Amino acid sequence: MARDADGFPVTRSPAGVVRAAAGSRELTVLDERVSGCRACPRLVTWREEVARVKRASFRSEEYWGRPVPGLGPVDARIGVVGLAPAAHGGNRTGRVFTGDRSGDWIFAALWRAGLANQPTSVAKDDGLELTDVRVCAAVRCAPPANAPTPEERDTCSPWLARELALLPRLRVIVVLGGFGWTALWPVLVGAGVPLPRPRPAFGHGVEVSLAGPNGPLTLLGSYHVSQQNTFTGRLTEPMLDAVLARAKELAAAD
């Protein structure tokens, strides 16, 4: 597999994503391959333009400007799936949900739940560590207007599928928002997970029990930690805390 100037393996097509994801036997290998992906031209152009132009308040920083891998240990029993990195958050810092207001919400909630060692996530070297939870996104590149296309979602889905498959103790997936909820269903189908019919609609607090490849698997819906939801009160801290408390309860029951 060819490597770019920074040493990351390069993937340039949807078929290449399928092969690269399937061939990743460890999370560290998967994360490296995610970081070199160039399979979606629109997203590559956008993320690199943002990294070049920068926001005025971050003009002195070097942006990551790449796809953003997941974060958390391989023995995690809880997964958290978001939408995509923010242009001046994960696309800047190189760590999922790091350096933006959405990250302020999710990592503070994980800290309150005892799943993170600190309530903030501002940079890769800030000392953050997660316990029993892996955080990732359905799409790994920052998209224009925070809106990936269905084609981009589908191209990216093998990365998510492989990431979840490499978590052998996974028992609960907290899905942030309707986009992630929709993106997760074909991933589960590909993993051979029997799905209910009709498929449950997304909603905050929705709970779906499935027979996962390694045991019981529960999906929990939560409104996304976007500013649109948190600023308007559609999602409150107690609401998010309740979902994570339920996730911990379900994970501990195994």
From TrEMBL:
Entry's Gene Ontology BP terms: base-excision repair
Keyword check for Nucleotide-binding: no
Residues in Uracil-DNA glycosylase-like domain copies: 69-244
InterPro entries listed in its UniProt record: UDG_Type-4/5 (IPR051536), UdgB-like (IPR044147), Uracil-DNA_glycosylase-like (IPR005122), Uracil-DNA_glycosylase-like_sf (IPR036895)
Coiled-coil residue windows: none
GO molecular function term, any single one: DNA-deoxyinosine glycosylase activity
Highest taxon, organism lineage: Bacteria
Keyword tags: 4Fe-4S, DNA damage, DNA repair, Hydrolase, Iron, Iron-sulfur, Metal-binding
Gene3D superfamilies per record: Uracil-DNA glycosylase-like domain (3.40.470.10)
Pfam families: UDG
SMART domains: UDG (SM00986), UreE_C (SM00987)
Keyword 4Fe-4S in record: yes
PANTHER family to which the protein is assigned, alphabetical: TYPE-5 URACIL-DNA GLYCOSYLASE
Family that this chain belongs to: Belongs to the uracil-DNA glycosylase (UDG) superfamily. Type 5 (UDGb) family.
Protein name (Swiss-Prot/TrEMBL): Type-5 uracil-DNA glycosylase
Classification of source organism: Bacteria, Bacillati, Actinomycetota, Actinomycetes, Geodermatophilales
